[in-house]
Each structure stands twice: as structure tokens, then as C-alpha cells.
Amino acid sequence: VSPELRKGPRGGGRDTERIVRHTNGAEIDEFAKKVGVNTPLDARQNPVELRAHRDAFCEVIREHNARGASARSWTVQFLMRRCAYHMLDHAWELEDKDLSSGT
């Protein structure tokens, strides 16, 4: 995906880096906290720290699911759907606005 994206109403003119930073930040600062994973927000900019965060997030989700525990006010299943949908929605945004596709 090109670093610069086609401008338009969706996303407020963000570039690729800002969208990736937003999606990783939401995972760290909103979704993972619902199951008690507290990772510093700066981890979204470091691939090694982001990988460690995701490993911890997946492990805790497995533990919660095995125990039947909730993710605060959400079920673990809803948390996973919401997290996946958020990433997918922004992946579609990147695809739609990619300048390197020739469209």
C-alpha cells in the first residue's frame, strides 16, 4: 500500500502510517485492556514490542475463553469480533485509497 492515500471523506485524509498507528493503538489502548492486558501505547511503533503485546493478548483471550470469563462488559467472542472487524475495516480503507493500484 502506498504511503500516501487518495483523499476523501472516509478517514479524514489520514495517510497509511496514521491508519496503522490508529488500528494498533486501538488494539492496545481499548481492546486488550478489556481482558487486563496493559501494554504501553508506544509499543504500537515497535514491531518487537507489538509482537509481544499480541502474544500476550492472544494468551489472555485463550485463558478467558477457557474459564468462560468476560471481557469487562463484553463477551470474549464479541471482543474478538470487534477487534478483527476494526482491523479489517481499516484494511479495506487502505485498499480503497491505495494510490499504487493504478485506479
Could you give a quick summary of the protein structure above?
The protein is mainly α and 103 residues long.
Observed structural traits:
elongated, mainly alpha, 57% helix, 3 helices, 103 residues
Secondary-structure element pattern, one letter each: HHH
Radius of gyration, in Å, reads 15 Å
Question: What can be said about the biggest beta sheet?
Answer: none
Helix-residue proportion: 55-70%
Q: What best-fitting shape do the alpha-carbon axes yield?
A: elongated
Total number of domains: 1
Structural class: mainly alpha
User: How far apart are the first and last residues' alpha carbons, in Å?
Assistant: 13 Å
Number of helices: 3
β-strand amount: under 5%
Uncertain residue ranges:
none
What does this structure look like?
This protein has helices at 16-31, 47-67, 76-97. Helix content is 57%, strand content 0%. The model has no long low-confidence stretch (mean pLDDT 92). The protein is built from three helices and no strands. The protein has 103 residues and is mostly helical. The chain has one domain.
What topology emerges from the helices and strands here?
Layout: H1 16-31, H2 47-67, H3 76-97
Helix pairs in contact: 1-3
